[in-house]
Known about the structure:
With about 210 residues, the chain is an alpha/beta fold. The protein has eight helices and eight strands, in the order βαβαβαβαββαβαβαα. It is about 35% helix and about 20% strand.
Amino acid sequence: MIIAPSILAADFAKLGEEAKRAEDAGADHLHIDIMDGHFVKNLTLGPRTVAAMKRSCSLFLDVHLMIYTPYDYVEQFVESGADQITFHFEATEDVMETIDFIHRCGIKAGLAFCPETSESMMVKYIDKVDNLLLMTVNPGYGGQKFIPEVLDKVRFVRALSEKVVIQVDGGINLETANEAVKAGANALVAGSYLYHHANMKQAILELRGLGR
Ligand code: DX5
Ligand code: ZN
């Protein structure tokens, strides 16, 4: 089970300390949400923030691009220290090219799908990516409500591959994570739940215990 706190829910006045806090609490990955104000309405972080996170902790940096033409930005994020780049199927015509380019840069590649995108679109990429991100909210903001219909997609993908990492992102807490893990997810992104929890370490331990 991979637990990835999303820095989007952290205190932006002290991002470095917040990254370290996730590491000290036992997280596996640090999830960094990059939004361009076009693919999604919100504007968030960029390559310089990824570089700052690299200096602040030793966590695996899981960069989630919610931007158009992700191919054009791959190199910048690789240079900034991303260990995995996950981009949206809906954001580019060059899905396979972008996956290959990320791999050629020597890091892991992930492909993300919005809740309303048909699972039939996922099939041909399942064996090509390291991480398949199934959004459990509409991308753009933290703190939204989990969309349970996505669980069918998690089951669909898991039935096709035992190997692929299935990451769920959006509205994840102990209860919704339990549902997602039962459906076949093995990577959990959680922003509000972990960063606003009174005891992040305990919360991570509980998430890790799911599915055992
Ligand atoms: C939403 C982002 C998520 C967000 C999750 O577009 O991709 O990673 O940080 O936030 P919570 O866990 O608060 O729903
Ligand atoms: Zn995300």
